[in-house]
Design a protein that fits this description.
This protein has 2 helices and 9 strands; from the N terminus they run E-H-E-H-E-E-E-E-E-E-E. It is α+β, with helices and mostly antiparallel strands.
Length: about 130
């Protein structure tokens, strides 16, 4: 079970989240390599390492007023919408070219750190971000 940390001198999460956040740590599920040949496993391991390095080098989320967001993942730039649940413990993002929202649990949100998660166990995705200076 995740712990929720919220800190920001009385600011609501919907205010704390606004701004540009640089991805600085990432946990993503990988394929089951035990069922692969050594060559396939090596290929996927290298591909996942390359993808993670790219996301850590260039990945960000930029949450704007009015529920607009811009983000870069895997070297691709996206524009979309964001919103929070009524209790401000969940973040929803949606690419403007998609009909489906992604739901994240906000496990930490302060003036300088944002951690969001989705999934559980082996399917857990965790994105840790640091706020960039404005």
């Amino acid at each position: 079970m995740a712990t929720l940390t919220i800190s920001g001198c009385g600011k609501k999460n919907s205010e704390l989240i606004k701004g540009r956040w640089k991805i600085n740590d990432l946990t993503v599920p990988g394929p089951d390599m035990s069922k692969m040949t050594p060559e396939e496993a090596e290929y996927y391991k290298k591909a996942m390492t390359d993808q993670t390095e790219k996301m850590l080098a260039t990945g960000y989320y930029d949450f704007k007023d009015g529920g607009i967001c811009f983000y870069e993942l895997d070297g691709q730039k996206f524009e979309g919408k964001w919103r929070m649940s009524e209790d401000e413990k969940k973040l929803y993002t949606k690419d403007k070219k998609s009909t489906q929202e992604e739901e994240f649990n906000i496990t930490e949100l302060t003036e300088g750190v944002l951690i969001i998660e989705k999934g559980e166990g082996k399917e857990l995705v965790r994105i840790t971000m640091k706020k960039e200076a404005e």
